[in-house]
Specification:
- The protein has 131 residues and is of the alpha+beta class.
- The longest helix is centred in the middle third of the chain and has 31 residues.
- Helix 1 crosses helix 3.
- The chain folds into two domains: 85 residues, Orthogonal Bundle (Arc Repressor Mutant, subunit A); 38 residues, no CATH class.
- Helices cover 66% and strands 17% of the residues.
- The strands form two sheets. Strands 1-2 form a two-stranded antiparallel sheet. A two-stranded parallel sheet has the order 3-4.
- It is built from five helices and four strands.
């Protein structure tokens, strides 16, 4: 079984909040999802990462603190990748490729292109007319 990026995010939030219930509220997810993430992480690592303190939330074990250091590095790399992809996709611009039958192109296409440009701004448009 593998630990997913999202599950690592759940674990980080549990550690931040010292509470499963509080982490669920912040993440807007079910308690079962967080508990499953903890189970998978502890199975994968072969060690207990959290101690449940009855009535006092949850706390990281020494192994959990070491895990959290690596998890934070992993999540920071993921966030950097996301920023890079957003920056890259932002420079690519929006493009539209339209095909239309020759007799209708002059009548139908100009209003469509105007609405598209109004909605998406500058873009690359490829118009294909044929029969």
């Amino acid at each position: 079984m593998r630990l997913t990026y999202k599950q690592v995010q759940y674990l980080r939030e549990v550690a931040r909040q010292d509470s499963i219930a509080a982490a669920c509220k912040v993440l807007a997810i079910s308690q079962s999802s967080v508990l499953a993430a903890i189970d998978v992480a502890e199975e994968v690592t072969g060690t207990q990462l959290f101690t449940r303190r009855k009535g006092h939330g949850i706390a990281l074990t020494p192994a959990g603190r070491v895990f959290l250091i690596s998890a934070n590095r992993f999540l920071a790399s993921g966030e950097e990748l996301t920023r890079s992809l957003e920056q890259f996709s932002g420079t690519a611009g929006t493009s539209l490729r339209i095909g239309c039958f020759l007799p209708f192109g002059a009548l139908l296409i100009p209003p469509v292109l105007r609405r598209f440009r109004d909605s998406y701004g500058d873009c690359e448009i490829t118009l294909l007319e044929g029969d």
